[in-house]
Amino acid sequence: MHERTVPLPFPIDVRRTLYGVRRGRHDATCRFGADGLWRASRTPAGPVTLRLQPETDRVIATAWGDGAEAALDAVPSLVGCHDDDDGFDPDHPVIARLWRDFRQVRVPRSGSISETLINVVLEQRVTTFEARRSQSQLNAKWGEDAPGPIDLRLPPDPEVLAGVAYYDLHVLGVEKKRADTVRRVAANARRLDALALLPAPEAHQRLLAMPGVGAWSAAEVAMVALGDADAVPVGDANLPSTVTYALTGTAVDDDDAMLEALEPFAGQRGRVIRLIGAGGIQAPRKAPRYAPRDIRSQ
Questions:
Q1: Where are the alpha helices (DSSP H) in the chain?
Q2: Per-residue model confidence as pLDDT tens digits over 233-252
């Protein structure tokens, strides 16, 4: 066990900042409880279980496993200490209010690109329920027990996942296109994770070069793993209506309309989206909620 105290350079709502790092409430690799925020992951140094215990001006971080030191080194980025809001001073009345009320919700940078991308691929073109079920079954079948004192699962070893037969993913509800992308991501996990060393915009663009990874998928990864405060998940089933509703008062289910509404916030569009989510703003629902399609891979 290793422990470290991480001072916070400004107030941070760690739980809300890590929204997206945990893929749903039943993510077997994460647990957010009264005893802290727990996350099991793989680092280049080995597997790790990390516990974060936020306090007013610091986070007490404890880690178990071979990747403990690497995970502790990454805590400041993970919780948003390096999130740069320089120049973000919105005069839009709704966003200005949200920024005043939810400034403590920062943009995380987990660095776990391949782990995040595999989960995101499983969310393409299916309902949220179907995606969460596949993610849970994937971790149960090919993950491992995480180190430390809590019952968490490590995400599957990429080398193992890369060699899984299509049929084995098919029985989890993952059709061939997504299954091929999952295995491709796993086979290239080391190269993908190295993108975390690049500036976020450059890494974001390189993600788009991978077959099966479109604008929505790349943006979802960038917002969680790369700390990209400008990432916009184009192709989402509900986001355009919600963003246009928050910014214009009229819900328009169109990506171009969403991008036009976000244009005044260029450089910080992803932050605006996170603030809208933190504020609980949603457009009136007109249809069942489906997960997004990945528009570039079609």
A1: 14-17, 68-73, 75-78, 93-101, 113-122, 128-142, 158-162, 166-170, 176-187, 189-193, 200-207, 215-225, 239-248, 255-262, 269-278
A2: 999 989 999 999 999 999 99
